[in-house]
Amino acid sequence: MIPSARILLIVSGGIAAYKSLELIRRGRDRGMSFRVILTRGGAEFVTPLSFASISGEKVYQELFSLTDEAEMGHIRLSREADLIVVAPASADLLAKMAHGLADDLASTTLLATDKPVMVAPAMNVMMWANAATQANIATLRARGVDVVGPGSGDLACGEEGSGRLSEPHDILDAIERVLGHEKLLSGLKALVTSGPTHEPIDPVRYIANRSSGKQGHAIAAALAKLGAETLLVSGPTREADPAGVAVRHVETAAQMLAACEAALPVDIAVCAAAVADWRPARAGNQKLKKNGANTKSLDLTANPDILATLAQSKTARPRLVIGFAAETEQVVKHAEEKLKKKGCDWILANDVSENTGTFGGDANTIHLVSASGVEDWPTLSKQDVAQRLARRIADHLRGAHA
Ligand code: C5P
Known about the structure:
The chain has 402 residues and is of the alpha/beta class. It has helices spanning 19-29, 40-45, 48-55, 66-71, 74-79, 91-99, 105-112, 125-129, 131-142, 168-178, 214-225, 253-263, 306-311, 331-342, 382-397, and strands at 6-11, 33-38, 59-60, 83-89, 117-121, 146-147, 151-154, 160-164, 189-194, 199-200, 206-207, 229-234, 246-249, 268-271, 278-280, 300-302, 320-327, 346-351, 363-370, 373-381. Strands 13-12-9-14-17-18-19-20 form an eight-stranded mixed sheet, with helices on both faces. A six-stranded parallel sheet has the order 3-2-1-4-5-6, with helices on both faces. Strands 7-8 form a two-stranded antiparallel ribbon. The radius of gyration is 25 Å and the shape is elongated. The mean pLDDT is 90. Bound molecules: cytidine-5'-monophosphate. Residues 193, 253, 271-273, 275, 277, 303, 305-307, 323-325, 338 line the site of cytidine-5'-monophosphate.
């Protein structure tokens, strides 16, 4: 496996400190490890015990704690990290950093480090807009500190505007960018299908399904972030085109297949689209009339299987062909059968039975089924599933996995 990023997380005072617990939890899902320095202000909002439990590590607080200094001095804390992340970064800590103050463990570590530093500010809108804070941020940027956010919206203080701590997944994406993980797939081409297909019955009606396209779009974005030249072939969805990804918009399965075949050769194909299995055998040129009929039957004909076509291509099979299996029971067993039947390399199986909320929802519980066995992933956001899959693909193609 690619070595996990070792993050030294400095949590300063602010109501947003609780979000850092989520940052750690999701970061660990992406394979990162965290050590936490909690400032006196930070400890007013979240207890050291919460950070210790969620990071699985001791939490560091006092500069002059004899035991801390003996076991792990501030120099070693920084030396043993790949990146220092300050989240939330309070106006006060940013000012200390800009002016080189070193009167507690956090500020001393920041002054003494030779590692890259990222800050994610969070504060009241007026404090953020204040010329002093803006000058401090400009100074820090000029010294090479990465600044993530802040976002805008409702603030904890009841006001609205700029000053919200960036969302954990945005901070984690920024961490991965800074650490250069995005380059793991550079030089490789990826093809991703996403969304439903619409199969016309007549000019105004069609057969469709409830796929939102969230997972497929997130996968295309994650592959592109790791440096793959990525084409997303998308059925009709409400999702925005992901940044850095070429997108072909299609409606029907036949169009989706044609767009995929035109994209070959590629190194990686991920078929996340919920392609309609059937289409009306003859789509009417004119709107079908009721003509007083109480029943009407529709002749259906099978659609091409895009995943199987790519996986079984004699001339241009991608090196890694990945499909999804949405199941409502015996998830892994059905996925194993699908792997064989379609001839793909991996199946990401997920349970879409009622009340899992997978369809259209934001989370997904994946079992990665391949010839070498089954990996059970924890429940993750669709973005984190995408990140994890992209990293896993990079590991595989770089030979870290058989
Ligand atoms: O057979 P089933 O629809 O359950 O298989 C799901 C997998 O096959 C998904 O990866 C889906 O994108 C792909 N698929 C396809 N073309 C079809 C049907 C499914 O690419 N016509």
